[in-house]
Design goal:
Blueprint (H helix, E strand, L loop, with lengths): L1 E7 L7 H6 L1 E5 L1 H4 L3 E5 L5 E5 L11 E4 L4 E6 L2 E8 L7 H12 L5 E2 L4 E3 L3 H9 L2 E8 L59 E2 L2 E2 L22
Parallel strand pairs: 1-4, 2-6
Antiparallel strand pairs: 1-5, 3-4, 5-6, 7-9, 7-10, 8-9, 11-12
Length: 227
């Protein structure tokens, strides 16, 4: 058995001629939503696929085996329900409403601009028809949404990373543009640090100096002083 442990989404970065020459593996969604499975490619090779957990395998993805050979994945046609708005009085918004109700039932849905796809279910089909949607059973590839946090959930890449870098620490100094709470606006001369600065400058709160003297004691019940 040949081990496969790498996936290239949609063969990105590979020459078209290499993808065309690769062996193929035709599998349905029930298998492709698993990160680990056994399969046989079109050349008869036995493959043991071991991908990071949560990885979804999409039609058009390229698997790379341990010997460097590549296998192009083909989404095997399977039974699906195609949902479209009613031709006579339907609206595109009807699909949004249908997706909402299906999502509430945790149904896997393939989202397209003009239709939805789900796996066959006569109860759901009746519900959708009662909502004045057209439901047709057919054979076709099924590529449902994988969830916001699923690896390979979108089936494509944007070609860039959304990195969140921590901000550089600020170093105070000449020209930093910050008001550091000096009443005379600068660092010149002697300062009475016991005198609190203005409460705010240009609408922005600034630091409040704390007097070194201790706060006056207020006598009262429980103060523990001998009066």
């Amino acid at each position: 058995m040949l081990t496969v442990n790498k996936l290239i989404p949609q063969g990105q970065g590979l020459a078209a001629v290499l993808i065309k020459r690769a062996a193929t593996l035709e599998i349905d969604w029930d298998v492709r939503q698993k990160s680990r499975f056994d399969a046989t490619d079109n050349t008869g090779r036995q493959l043991g696929v071991f991908l990071p957990r949560g990885t979804l395998v999409r039609g058009g993805d390229v698997l790379v085996a341990e010997d460097g050979s590549m296998v192009r994945v083909v989404a095997q046609p399977q039974g699906v329900l195609v949902i479209t708005p009613c031709a006579s009085h339907g609206r595109a918004f009807d699909l949004v409403r249908a997706a909402y109700h299906l999502g509430n039932r945790h149904v896997q849905i393939e989202l397209q601009p003009d239709h939805l796809k789900i796996e066959p279910d006569h109860v759901l089909a009746d519900m959708l028809r009662a909502m004045h949607l057209t439901v047709t059973e057919t054979l076709g590839a099924f590529e449902p949404e994988g969830g916001a946090y699923a690896a390979g959930g979108h089936g494509h890449s944007h070609g860039h990373e959304h990195e969140h870098k921590p901000a550089e620490p600020h170093v105070h100094g000449p020209g930093c543009g910050h008001d550091h709470g000096h009443a005379d606006g600068g660092h010149h001369g002697d300062h009475d640090h016991a005198t609190p600065p203005a409460v705010a400058t240009r609408g922005k709160p600034i630091g409040i100096a704390i007097k070194s003297e201790s706060a006056p004691h207020v006598h009262g019940p429980g103060c523990k002083h001998d009066h």
